Amino acid sequence: MQRILFLFLVLTLCIHSTFGEEKPSPPGPPKEGYYILTYKNYGLNLEIKVNGYDVRDGSSNEDSSGQADINYWIQPDKNKIKIRLTERKSKQKENTGLSKEAEVKLYIGQKGQFPDEGILLEHFQWPTSTKSSLGEWTEIELNPPFIPPSKLWTQAEPISLTKEKETSAIEFAVEFTKTLNTKDPKKILSIIQFRAQDTSEVRYYPFVEADELKSINDMTKAIGSTWKLDTKKIKFTLLCNNQILSITDPKGEPIITSKKGASIPLYLSWIGGKWVIVR
Q1: What is the distance between the alpha carbons of residues 241 and 157, in angstroms, rounded to a whole number?
Q2: Residues 148, 32: Cα–Cα separation, whole Å
Q3: Residue 9 pairs with which residues in a beta bridge?
Q4: What percent of the chain has pLDDT over 70?
Q5: pLDDT at position 180
Q6: Terminal alpha carbon distance of the chain
Q7: Separation CA 145–CA 151 (nearest Å)
Q8: Strand partners, 239
Q9: Do residues 52 and 252 lie in contact, with contact meaning Cβ atoms separated by under 8 Å?
Q10: What is the DSSP-derived secondary structure letter of residue 74?
Q11: What domain of life does the UniProt record list for this protein's source (predicted)?
Q12: Domain ranges for the chain
């Protein structure tokens, strides 16, 4: 009888302990991290835009897979990811017997993680998870759980692209090219200061001026004063709710290039009444 009472007492205590424990709360959404797009495409061309920025321009006729950190382009409120698949324009009918497919995923990852170890936010898969036809854009609206740290979105004014604005942007590009050809790291840094500091914050690493100057100095030693600005044919594109102006040639390539094959993209914002390099 005593043994039965003892077992009953132990069982009662176990039951009380089990039901008395509080269940742990599920983890909330992350408050920082890296927005990473992963993609792959077979037998089709893949084009991806994030708030107007070309992650992939869709011109390659090759199968591919890769990833892109898009923290630089995530802005407050709604973000738009646009995806388009097109048939390949090739004289040779390749992949005729192979399946045509594509996949794009958006993750939030943390430092040291592989992208697929992060939190999956969006998943596009063709042809299984979308009804979009080839040649049509699929638009995904993203309300991000957090915004990467950046001063850009509170300082950059919406740009109204007038002829005067276009002219002043080209004048800025001319002066920037001249400054690059001085090979003076301090002068160059003075023009790209906002970009250097803000993109460091977006990537969660500290901005160290001495390191930035060294990096610029290394670049000028390798390239020299061979930077050239091509203004014959220019394409102006507004990105990120018209807060960033991209300046390229008609094919989307940078207009500032060097003899050694290097190039510098131009992403400008209108801040405090002047053009500023921001990305």
Answers
A1: 10
A2: 7
A3: none
A4: 87
A5: 97
A6: 80
A7: 18
A8: 244
A9: no
A10: -
A11: Bacteria
A12: 34-142, 152-277
Distance CA 66, CA 210 (A): 33
Instruction: Dihedral sign for Cα 251, 79, 151, 212, please.
Output: negative
Cα Rg of the chain, angstroms: 26
Q: Which residues of 179-198 are buried (b: 16+ CB within 10 A; e: fewer)?
A: bbbebebeebbebbebbbeb
Give the residue ranges of DSSP H helices in 74-184: 152-155, 163-180
- Domain 152-277 maps to which CATH number in 3.10.450, 3.40.50, 3.30.43, 2.60.40? 3.10.450
- Interatomic CA distance for residues 127 and 203, integer angstroms: 34
Of 268, 110, 272, residue with least CA distance to 204: 110
Interatomic CA distance for residues 119 and 110, integer angstroms: 9
Sign of the dihedral defined by the CA atoms of residues 213, 216, 222, 226, in that order: negative
Residue 189 tokens, joined: 């840094």
pLDDT digits (tens, 9 = 90+) for 101-140: 999 999 999 999 999 899 999 999 998 877 778 999 999 9
Q: Report how far residue 172's alpha carbon sits from residue 166's, in angstroms, rounded to the nearest whole number.
A: 10
- Please give the Cα distance from 108 to 207 (Å, whole number): 23
